[in-house]
Amino acid sequence: MRLDLNKTYEACKWFVFVGLNKLADRHNRGQPALELRLSYPDQYAAKDPLIWVFCSTIGEVNACKPFLLEVQKQGRLVLITDRRCYEASYRRNFPNAVIAELSGRIDDGQTLLKALPPAKFIVCEIPASPVDAPCRLSYSVLRAARQAGAQCYLVNGWLYHYTPSCRMDQIEDRFFAGHYLNSFSFLTVQTETVRQHLLERGVDSARISVGGNMKFDSMADQSSQILDSRSVGVINELKAGGRRMVVAGCLTDTWEYELVANAFHQALKQDPALFLVMAPRHPEYPEQKVAISRILGALDLKYCYKSALAEGEGVAESAVLVLDTFGELKSFYGTASLCYVGLNHNVLEPLSFGKPVVVSPGWEETFPSYPVYQLTQELDLLEEAPSPEQLTTAMLREEADEAARTLIMAQLNRLSGAVDHSLEKVFA
Fold first, then answer.
1. High-pLDDT (> 90) share of the chain, %
2. pLDDT given for residue 3 in this prediction
3. Strands 37-39, 98-101: parallel, antiparallel or unpaired by DSSP?
4. b/e 185-218 (16+ beta carbons within 10 angstroms → b)
5. How far apart are CA 200 and CA 194, in angstroms?
6. Which has the closest alpha carbon to 85: 321, 280, 234, 249?
């Protein structure tokens, strides 16, 4: 009886929430409405069992890729994202998956359910509550999966402790945070701190465990997959010309563009063979590219954008390549002599190649990258460079030798195991 009352209470709240969303849509009628967008692989059979997977960004896909490669052996993946710029990268990683780009509308869940009813639904890393992340998974999607009878799981879980960004998010969190968490048959999380917080929010202790961080399992994939002929040509040209490549990845904003560009400008005076690859975290935002162009232009550094390179066009006349494409950063990390990783982002990608890694201080404990940052810092695998002068010094060092690279990877490999832990829970 209590279960029936809970279901009735949830259904009543859902009825009210749908009505409030319709009122909000009327209020915002002048804004263009998005539709849920589906992209199917070339070979698609409707009889395949479908496994929904929410991976908001390339970061989550890369972090959970070893896990997802095993999951796809059990059925066809439906990769769900709340972003509209990652389809090509997702397709390269998982060519047989269906890709679903959410619209953010209340009917996303039902639209997806009608087109692709799931057998399982797996939420990768975040969000561990509906509105607690810079990405967003509407409760409507999780609710629809449950309506289909799908078993739902959260793996590699993490919490940002974000507050709801708008009134509707506040209502959704108040109405459904408990229902959201209790929709999962099991949750594996990265740390005991996350586990304790979710227990306080009502998760049954029998349905949650600490599995570690899947990013350490991705260390096993040390290959550098160069994705297109233009990238191959750029890298081969730099190698043939004896250029040493410094790669600065996941740069967050103007201050970090300035830090890296100024440091490189000084290093180039002492070593003209240096070449810089700058990868902004959000190249899809035009204002970020404008800022990069302004900063490089002020320093009189010749540069080109990867997206603007014609087939066969070289970079010999440039000092900087701005990597404004998606899914290629790891390829360039693998060929670098030094890697700088932007604040609060993934240091394991360059470390997986045994590369020396430099970061800025000030990492935030709420970010999912922080436990990895903290562990690698304790292992003395990171160098902090709070000023352009210190970063310049790091750029001018010779590349680490094979013995140093082997030691880096050996120190990190012992922290793997999260993938097997989550697979055991999802396919018990």
1. 55
2. 55
3. antiparallel
4. bbbbbbbeebbebbeeeebeeebbebbbbbbbbb
5. 10
6. 280
